[in-house]
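dumping the sequnces here before i forget
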Amino acid sequence: MKLLNVVTFLVLGIGSSVSAEESSRDTSDGMWAYRPVVKPTLEKRGSAAIDSLLMKHMPAGSKLAPDATARTFIRRATFDLLGLPPTPTEIAEFEASFNKDADAAVRGLVEHLLSSPHYGERMAQHWLDVTRYADSSGFANDYERGNAWRYRDYVVRSFNADKPFDQFIREQLAGDEIYESLADDKRSSDLLIATGFLRMGPWELTGMEVAKVARQRFLDDVTNSVGETFLAHSLQCARCHDHKFDPVPTRDYYSIQAVFATTQLVERPAPFMSVENTKGFEERRYLEQRRAEYLAELAELDALLLQNAERWFAEQKKDPARWYEAVRVVRNRANQETRRPDVFTAARNSLTAQRVPESEFPPKLVGFTPEQFGRERVARKGLERLNWELDRYEPVALAVYSGRTPELRSVNAPLRLPANRASVGELEETHILAGGDPFAMGKKVQPGVLSVLKDVPQPRMVEQLDGRRLAFAEWVASTKNPLTTRAIVNRVWMWHFGEPLAGNPNNFGSTGKKPTHPELLDWLAATFVEDGWSIKSLHRQIMLSAAYRRASRLSNDGDGSSARSPEQSVPYASFKPRRLSAEELRDAMLAATGELNREIGGIPNRPEINVEAALQPRQVMGTFAAAWVPNPWPAQRHRRSLYALKLRGLSDPLLEVFNAPAPDFSCERREATTVTPQVFALFNGQGTHARALAMAARVLKDLDQMAAADASPQSRDDWAIDRSFRLVLGRKGTDAELAMCKNHWRDMQTLQAKSQPTSIKPPLVVRRDAVEENTGEKFSFQEKLHSNADFVPDLQPSDCDARLRALADVCLVLFNSNEFCYVE
Amino acid sequence: MSNEITFSGCDRRDFLFGLGASCGSVALSRLLADDARAAESSSPLAPRKAHLTAKARNIVFLLMEGGPSALDTFDPKTTLEKVHLQEFVREGKQKSAMESGKRYYVKSPFQFIKAGESGADMASNWSHLAKVADEICFYRGCQVDSVNHPTAMYQLNCGNRFGGDPGLGAWVTYGLGSLNQNLPGFVVLPEVSYPQGGAANWSNGYLPAHFQGTPLRPKGSPILDLMPPPGVTREQQRKNLDLLAKLNEAHAVEHPSQPELEARMTNYELAFRMQMQVPELLDLSNETAQTQAQYGIGQDATDAFGRKCLLARKLIEKGVRFVQLYNGSWDSHDYIERAHGNLVRGVDQPIAALIADLKQRGLLESTLIVWCGEFGRTPDNGVRGGIAYGRDHNPNAMTMWFAGGGCNAGHTVGATDELGMTAVEDEHHIRDLHVTLLRLMGLDDDKLTYYHAGRFKQLSQFGGEVIDKLMA
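..and the predicted 3d for all of it:
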């Protein structure tokens, strides 16, 4: 018997502590999540109902915080809904209207934010955390998923349009089946793109792996992902055997898996829609440059192999006649059919096909030196990898189709729709697998759903190739499915308050934490369905509640004397102060400097990341992945972090260190740990220094335009510092702060005047040293970074005088301040 | 309760590398002003009591990434000489594309010796390691689930094949803390090129970030952004830090319920100190010429790994709990003689020196050295270059070894079949290796758990057994 650790969890600002031991051992009510949603009968309606249900559980001795100030509220609400800070003008206007009529001002603000196109970006960030969005496939090859960005934008669009959540579910689970059921003129690419959800997990099939094992990995991944995302159920626990206290038997797990037994992976045609951002495709030319290089390299090596072959025949004293004939035939064919220069290999293959014994013609890569081995491999694998990247600009969706399972040996290029999906390949039967082993087949199962949810109308599950997922999606998106509705309202609640009502948004099962406010959870779920599964309506109800409008600390003047411990000073049912997420931090800096490019959607961009990480060699199967080369133009680089190319094998160190989750597992909630490397990234990193410089430049430009021309130097300095405070922190600086910062500015100017700032030019070439894997010998090659030739840097210290650089020191400090990094 | 692990609630006031003896001036004054708070400020890396009696205090994990071949290093197979280049056919539906085409048995190009008093089997090119053979416990019975590098690496390092879980070093520091609060408890010395699967191999996974492996990069800045951009002086930094402290101090007074604000402030001071300390730590020039020579520093073949091994010793001396060294790639599909020959030349002397050096300093007893790859290699191979004898990936038989730290030195445990195709004696799934390594550190895998995403999780995933024979 296993001893469970006693772990105490701080549950929100809301409610009391629940120990994990309690929640996992106490199975008496482990069933709460499966019971039908019961809407509490209340006199109060809307947001007031939320408050009354919260007050019901207010522990004795806890306190309520006063209302948040206008500035606190607008900063909180804007970060919550847009992931961006409010501008100084927006703050001033809101403060003015708040002072006139706080309720109306708050209502107006919430409406204004919900109608912003950036609302969808912020919600997408949350949703993509859960669905594990990445632009690459992970594991050994980490091939790019060139079309994944269209799914990311679909999610942004869906939230912006307030797409009913049940429809959002159906599209992601079965959009392709809906698509095919519609008349041609009703078909929208969005329906195909939506099924990118089913492709979000890391997956690959290399030649090393047994295909059936890889297929099973996909099935297990998608089954668990659907469970976690929509049903708040980690189903993987039921993969191997039934669990004593868990109402999800292994049979159910495989029944749900059977729903996906005809789901096949594909990068399929889906015309670009007018709502999609298809700008910037001309960057393709940099990839074409690389492609041309690889082809030239292979041509050179092919010529070398043909020479080596001649030498081989001479040394082996064998008759080369058949070989020359094969080479001649292949050459003629190659000219017409293929651009790839592999005459040597093709000639070998043709002799093999003619059943010429292997001993009679030269071996593969004959006579290569270790360096040539290496160069050949780098070019060949490089071409393979480029295929995936070039798919980015094609009207293709990362999607699925229903059909028989094709026989795959390895997947080294995007998979296209097969011609005969209903007749070619295996019609997969799903069996209960002992211990999850695909070769240990037990009883056969039919497509099905969770048997524990007796009150949800059972779908008519089909056994044909098509329609399994649509039937399943109808069951998931049923108004009667208590897991689905509770799961989403629990998430949205957490996105606002920092803590969910039920502690494990991905796991309502018997081991997950029970809700602190079950009636509130049910009220939200029921109201959500009544309101047509509208997420925006849910935001309104939550954000207009008294709870959300309260301050996050007990007193605003806060001398701290009344509170002996942090716990005692946490008010009941308030917004929990939170550190900005990694993406918000970066975006907020760009917003403050005015550099942020607010364009919505489109192909992923590549901002500058720590240059050592960008250029560090990254091993993938048989070669190195391409270096991280930033976009050449500042406006391309300064897009919101949501749009940055997200590679599973290479994360932006700045985002990573601030707890951006790795996309391997679904992230139900962000962590916000405080660790030393954050200081290195934010205080020393090139990125923050560049933002600080841009900030100082903006402020001095504003100063020239806005401050009174006849003002004294002293008051002009005051104005500049105050402007920095307003842009970075959203408030005016106090007199003490202005004095302190002005002194600092002056001191630093003296120091800066002594320094000789340099500017950095990005490299055009990076040298790669490797151990050639066949031979164990060292070799090196050059990787050209083509787009760096066009690189236009951000403002450089060498472009600025000491006064500006010294003001940038002040701005660097402001960007590092606790006040900037936290929202309350 | 001896097994309480109560970190989950404390994310508000922890920071990586601990709370050093000297806090930043601002934070220190605040801490001293409030004894109650100072008392609870213990670092998450503070040393913690083990569940059981520990045999080892530290681990040095030598990861030969790519998968070294046992048949060419420590598990000789004379039968292979007899069947050399005979055709081999793999049957069954578990065949992968790798195994299609013609395959042949391949004998080892290396000669073998019996080393030490224990008579351990070693390829003769391990001439330095042979001198410390009696310190070593060989294990030939380990089995894994994956034949792909990154998934096998994840399984070896994190217990599951898909990454995202905490690494072994993270678990160990989570369970035991670290002996030096100014350094990370889990340090990784990677190659210039990270292994397949990348930094997820030393991830903290769902454990708090303090337990994440800190890579000290062999080229460029050892820690990313350890230093400010060129042109920024220490004086400038100090002045900026002082302004930051003043602004933060005023803000913190108004936010008494957010202790993490204070932790952030302290971190800035710690980072400032680390800028000085890390380069000192990495400086090997104060080691004697003799020591440096012993590790092979200065010689082309051994310099790189010799530096890592010597640095590992320094880190262990400084109290770092878990040091993981990467070497590779050992993925020798072809030309095994040349490829493995070069690789062995690169690590043999440094590893032997590390064992001898630790022993001489009295640290071998408390330091467990682990040498392994992510899977084994096959006795057969496809035809690639025709004469390019090599080996493919083999999950069914992996040989590894241990030294020091309470291992069963001088013994060889487990055996493979006569061709080295699969483990047949004392065979264990890799989860049992994990359980055993934790056990040597005094940790019980079933107690070393963390509540995450609604359930208690552990390194072995769902439990495993100790391989008793590996322990002295």
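Residues 1-27, 556-564 of chain A have pLDDT under 50 and may be disordered.
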